[in-house]
Write a structure and sequence with these properties.
0% strand; mainly alpha
């Protein structure tokens, strides 16, 4: 049942992104930034946490989950360290994912020959 919930919630988030790509003149980059900001904004009010508890990876894997993670990390750091946590908490919480993206991107660049789009 967890797989079904994750598939439905993650799929619905992706459907919203596809509708924005098809029906608006927003660039994909702006849509991605919007998803990150919406994830952080929704978590600011504590509304994203119940979605994560319900759908698990279906809510954390899409880009809105990254915004949720940044906001949650900043909230935790502010409660522990004060105002400096605003700047350090989000990156501390997301450090593992950011590091993995950099390392695997570097490894793929070593294995495959990177080419420009032109």
């Amino acid at each position: 049942m967890d797989y079904l919930k994750a598939f439905i919630v993650g799929g619905l988030i992706c459907v919203v992104g596809q509708i924005l790509i098809d029906k608006t003149k927003l660039t994909p980059a702006r849509i991605l930034v919007t998803f990150v900001m919406l994830g952080a904004f929704i978590q600011l009010f504590g509304w994203y946490e119940p979605l994560v508890k319900f759908a698990k990876c279906g809510a954390t894997v899409p880009l809105s989950g990254f915004g949720y993670l940044l906001c949650k990390g900043a909230q935790k750091a502010v409660s522990e360290m004060g105002a400096i946590g605003i700047f350090t908490g989000g990156l501390t919480a997301a450090a593992g994912g950011i590091t993995a993206a950099l390392v695997f991107g570097f490894l793929m660049a070593l294995i495959f020959k990177p080419k420009s789009k032109s």
